[in-house]
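Here is one chain, start to finish.
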Amino acid sequence: MSNWNPWHGCTKISPGCYHCYVYRRDAEFDRDASVVHKTASFDLPIKKDRKGEYKLKADGDFVYTCFTSDFFHPIADEWRIDAWRYIKIRSDLNFFIVTKRPDRFYESLPADWGEGYENVHLCCTCENQEMTDQRLPIFLDLPLKHRSIIHEPMLEAIDIRKYLEKYHHVIENVICGGESGKDARLCDYDWILSTRAQCIEFGVPFRFKQTGTYFRKGKRTYCIERKYQMSQAVKAGIDFKQQF
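Its structure:
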């Protein structure tokens, strides 16, 4: 898996941020995760080795981008100008970006963006109904070639039928996952199944990514170790791929 984190650190803006994994990890090293700063990897996409070859290579379908911050964080507005330039130069790579800030998409957007860069896949996080109804009307109208929705950490049952009905032709998939960590909030299997049913109704691919630490199925609640959370989701066998 290829990663590129051009900047690090973020500020919490909604319930999904409360137990942010970046904050947990930075706390282990006595670092303040709310301080947003450029990283040594800022220009990684255009760095070359002694042979003149790019150091950042495709390892899988995507380069997972800015996963220790938010690509559209306001502190990064000036930095993002160069980041977009690097993404354009590396048209051989597909950059996967997750954001809670679709409202800031147009800040520092390249002049040649048009309907989007083919090698950019943007994913919007919507952890509950309130954030879904706040973010998706903005996100789904953005000029993008590729987009996904993710409910992670999924904090309650979420109704996205009206969005799937109107935008099913531009949503490439919907992903669901529970929250990890010792302070994780519970994820209920019924919430996952509800989103899956909505996706199937409108022919949108669905993926169950991970159970989270505390996972309720029926009347039982399970405490699942981090290393098993993704494999247990796979074992559920409920992913849906479009058949037409």
